[in-house]
Structure formats: structure tokens, C-alpha cells
Design a protein that fits this description.
Length: 246
């Protein structure tokens, strides 16, 4: 396994780049006669509990090229807007989980190393849902560690922006830095996440009810229903690999 770090880009260019590197790696593997390059979230076994994740790093800048998240006068160097943004993501994180972890297999990584299970934020904390960096104006950003290797980066970006903007527009109160102790827990199954998404009026309104309705239907019919008659977890995992390894 390896990590690919992409250069920061404004707007949709970042998601285009993420898509291009996935497609490019799979094409190169085919041309070099390698067996497979996979972005399946949990491709191996419980004996090797390291999943494949996608970390979405976001920072906001004004038209003058200044960081909107950084505030040198604040004790933690984070602006009010940064705190509102964090509050928005945390409030909608259960619904965001559906876009960030869109397969049954994705939920095998919840509560595993380097993958969040509890809903909290902290500075430089790898177990947090939101890992915040605050070194300087150019190095202040929010790392969303929720997305999986199988996520659609465009849906993740769109839903994350919708959640963050809800925090900014409504000036949601940001909880203090936390830990997994006494924190709310993320959905443990895809069905739980889909139910949270359906009930999240802010995200449904921002993304469009038609998109959310079709996304939920596709996931229930084309994903969850495939496993409803599988009796053992071993058989289920084998079927997950059949559908998601490539």
C-alpha cells in the first residue's frame, strides 16, 4: 500500500485530479500486466486492519489571496469562520458518512487504525474525524478523514461544502477540541448512514432531493440487497471483493 499526496487546487480541479490519479494508476497497472490496482476500502482481511482512505483537505481563501481559516490573534490560530465550518461538518457527519463510505465494505474500516469512529475535531489528531492544521496562514486547513477509498470525490466535496456552509451561514457553535471519549459515534452500516442522509434536510436541499433519492435507491438496491441472503461473514467478504476489488 502507498499514499498519494496531491497538490492543492482551487475548486473542482482538486476532485478532477483525484479522479485522474485513480484512473491513471489503474491504466498503468493494466499496461504493465500487473494483476490489480484497487481502491477497495477494506481489501484484505481482519488480520490486516488497514483500510484504503481518502482524506479531503479544505481551506478557504478570500479574493485577496488571504486565508479565511487563519487568525493570528486567536489562541489556537483558527478564525471564527473556521470554527463555524468545523461545527457544520460535525453536525452533518452522520449523513456525510453515506457519501464518504458508499459501500457495505467501507464500514469494515470504521473504528480501525487511521479511520475515525467518533465525531470530534482536534488539532493534529489522526484519530479525529476532523484533523485540523494551524501552522501558518498558508498551512491552515481542515483534514476530513471520513472518506473511504471507494468514495466519489465529487459527491464528497459537494456535500462537505454544503455542511461547512451551513455552519458558516448559521454561525453554528463549534464544540471544543475533543477525543473519542463520550463522543457521538458514526454509523456502523451503510443502511444507518443512508437513513441519516434521508433525514438531513440541509444536505438534501443543498444537493437536490432527486440526487439524494436516486443515490439512496441505488445503494439499497445495487449494494445492500446484494448481501441480504448471505449467511456467513466469510461469504459476504468474498462477495464484497467480487464487486469492489476492481
Amino acid at each position: 500500500m502507498c499514499e498519494a499526496t496531491l497538490k492543492p487546487k482551487f475548486g473542482i480541479e482538486s476532485t478532477d485530479m483525484a479522479m485522474n490519479i485513480k484512473e491513471g494508476l489503474m491504466e498503468m497497472a493494466t499496461n504493465l500486466d500487473h494483476h490489480v490496482v484497487t481502491f477497495m476500502t477494506f481489501p484484505i482481511s481482519e488480520k490486516n486492519p488497514i483500510g484504503t482512505n481518502t482524506h479531503l483537505n479544505i481551506s478557504l481563501w478570500n479574493k485577496n489571496g488571504e486565508s479565511v481559516f487563519y487568525d493570528a490573534s486567536a489562541p489556537d490560530k483558527l478564525s471564527d469562520i473556521a470554527k463555524y465550518w468545523i461545527a457544520g461538518i460535525l453536525r452533518h457527519s452522520k449523513a456525510l458518512c453515506a457519501f464518504c463510505n458508499p459501500t457495505v465494505n467501507c464500514y469494515r474500516t470504521i473504528n480501525k487504525p487511521f479511520c475515525p469512529s467518533a465525531i470530534f475535531w482536534a488539532i493534529e489528531e489522526q484519530n479525529a474525524l476532523l484533523r485540523v492544521k494551524n501552522e501558518s496562514p498558508s498551512k491552515t486547513y481542515i483534514e476530513n478523514r471520513l472518506p473511504s477509498g471507494k468514495c466519489n470525490s465529487y459527491l464528497v466535496l459537494a456535500s462537505t461544502i454544503a455542511a461547512g456552509l451551513d455552519g458558516v451561514i448559521n454561525k453554528l457553535e463549534c464544540p471544543p477540541e475533543g477525543s473519542s471519549d463520550n463522543a457521538e459515534i458514526l454509523p456502523h452500516t451503510l443502511e444507518e448512514a443512508l437513513e441519516e442522509l434521508e433525514q438531513d434536510d440541509v444536505l438534501v436541499s443543498a444537493l437536490g432531493s432527486e440526487l439524494v433519492t436516486w443515490f439512496v435507491k441505488c445503494k439499497r438496491v445495487g449494494e445492500i440487497d446484494l448481501f441480504k441472503d448471505v449467511e456467513t461473514d466469510e461469504e459476504k467478504f468474498a462477495l464484497e471483493k467480487q464487486y469492489h476489488l476492481l
